Structures are given as C-alpha cells and as structure tokens.
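Here we describe the complex-level prediction in full. Unlike the single-chain runs in Section 2.1, the two entities below were treated as one system.
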Amino acid sequence: MATNTFHCSVITPERAVLETEATFVAFPAWDGEVGILHDRAPLLFKMGAGELRVESPEGNQVLFVDGGFAQMVDNRLTLLTEQAKKIAEIDTAAVERALAEARKLPMVSDAEFAARQRAVKSGEVQLHLAAKQGR
Amino acid sequence: MANRRVLVKRRKSVRNIRKITRTMQLIATARFQAAFNRAVATRPYTEKLAELVADLSRAAGDVDHPLLKTHEDVKRAAVVVLTADRGLAGGYNASVLRTAVTHLDQQAGQGIANDVHMVGKKGISYFRFLRREVAEQTTGIGDKPRFEQVEPIANALIDRFVRGEIASAHVVYMKFLSAGQQRPVAVQILPLKPETAEGKEAAKPVEYEFSPDPQQLLDELLPATVRARLFQAFNDAAVSEQVARMVAMKAATDAAGDMIKALTREYNRARQTQITMELLDIVGGANALS
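The structure predicted for the assembly as a whole is:
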C-alpha cells in the first residue's frame, strides 16, 4: 500500500535538524500536544517546550524542541524552533545546571516571571525526556 | 662577503614567513568553507520566518506591534559592531570599523547618542585607541557563532527597545555578497522594517488555522525575526572574515614568493661578483709574479 506521507522538516536558526517523509507527527503546541496526519488543513501554531515524535516509514524519531512555530501547508509540515535536540544528545548534567540557574532567576515583573517559567519548563521537560529514555 | 650572509639570512626569514602565511591561507580556506556552509544552513529558518510573518500579517490585518513602532523623541540608539578577534585579515576590521564610526558620527549629527556593543577584540582595542565609549563588549565568538551566543544580545536590544530606551538598533558588519565581494554595511534591525509588503506577495493566501490568534502569534514571531536577523549578521561576518583572511594571506604568500625571487637573484649576483673579484685577484697576482 502506498502509505500516505507528508514532508516534515525541523529547522533551527543554525541548521535543518530533520528533513523526512513522515506518516504521523506529534508536536508540542503551546497549549497541548497536536498530532498531524497527511492532508491536515493548514495550520499555524505556536509551540511549547516538549517532545516531538516523528513516525516515518524509515523509523520513528523523538526530538526535544524548545518553543517556536509549526506550519502545515500542502502536506509540508515545517517546525521552526530555536532549539531542537535528539533525546540522546541531551546533556543531563548541563541541563540540571541550567535548571538550577533558571530556578534562581528573579520573578518580580511579568516578563521576568515568564522568562523564568520558560527556562524552568524547558529544563524540566528535557530531564523528563532523558529519564524516559532510561538515561 | 658580509652582504651575502645578510642576503641569505633575509631570504631564510622571508621563506619562513611565506610558510606561515601559506598555512594561514589554507586554514582560512577550510574555515571559510565550513562557515559558508553554516551560513547557508541558517537561511531556511530566516526565510521561513519571513514567510510566516507575511502570512500572519495578512491574516491579522493592521499590524501594530511595539517592535514596529518608531520612537522619534528618544535620543538614544544602540549599535552592534561585529569585528574579528584576530587580525591579519587585510582590510576586514578596518573597513567595518570605518563604517561603524561613520554611522556613529552620522547619528551624533542628528543628536542621537549611541550605545555601542562591540563584538571582537579588534574593535574593542580600536575604540579604546579612539577613546570612544563602548557600552558592552563580547569576545570569543570565533568563526562558529552559535545561536545561544547571539540570542542574549538580541533579547537585550528588544527589551530596551520595547521599554522605549532606544529609538533604533543597528548592526554594523561585513556583508557577504560573494566569495569575491564583501561590503561593510550598517543595517537597521529595530524597529523592524516590515518586509511583508514585498517578497512573498505572489503566494496564494492560505486559510490557516491559528493557535493562539494571529495577533499573539505575531507577538512571538517578530522578536524571533529580530533574533534570526542578528544571528544571520553574525554568520555573514564570520564568513566574510575568513574570506578576507584568505585573500590577505594569499597576497602575502605571493608577495613573499616575489621577494624570495628578488633576494635569490641579488644573492646570486653578489656571489658572481665575488667570484669574479677573486678570479681577478688570482690572475692579477699571477701576472705580478711572472
């Protein structure tokens, strides 16, 4: 059976992390996970920090993405994010250090609070994902 | 006799210099390739962002965002100047700094004081020499700028701009046009110039499903655009630096080669002269005896 696939690319400012045909992708939107199948209607979503799962005929991949934007047009899903890592690339020690730093950030103004919230969330999610992979 | 030894010595030192410059040229060539590939790899992100902004502003209608506003009454601005940490890159640092100084003077002429954020050791020491003030400085970006290094600089600019402390932000860097051509430019990154009008106008409008609504998405997208643009400037500067060094070192290697040739010729002539003299001496001596 010719499986229905769509193109999925994950792009960071530094490089294209992933370019693949996919049968299913689940990405973390800002308010919850969104699953994408082929022929999905066009969407433009804000992403949160979390787990990106890509299922493709060649195999499944799991990445960590830290915010950004998702766009689906004409069976092309583009995920723009400022940070994307394979789970195996997560350096738990470094993340723990960053997380400890983040927890010490001031949270007086709204902006500071939001920044701290973001940094902490990003760290926690990375640790969670790493733990899930049994590392 | 003494002359000959001096020539040999000089030739030796020029040879050593040529060895060094050739090595530097080769290193710069390799780094240029790497930096160029990296710079190309950043392009999809920036292009996609611009496309999203265009799509969104079409959906959101009238775009009114703090990053697009102009503050005419504010008499302060910020400039980020990208120079190299190291010299021996021909006119690279000098021409970036010249452009920066021109830009600063021009702004000062309009009564706008600038806070300079200097990147690169060469720029820092040059401004110290000029006794110009540098508000902030960064070194050690090297030829592989990483997004984490650039992000805080961009965020600080965005913060200050939104708070109305600065009227504009420029970045002065060497724009990479092609391997044979780079030009120092001062580019405005804040307020954001809406590129939305031109460019991807031809694309057919797509009925998107937005989440959250377009206005909120724009709030996130525009700062991301600023960050991406600044990052691209850093990448461009890194590529240009390597090209400049490559060209400068090629010229130096060639010049050293010419010099060696000239010195060799001079040396040979000196040697020949000496031999002739010695012969004359011998012949003269023999003639005197007979």
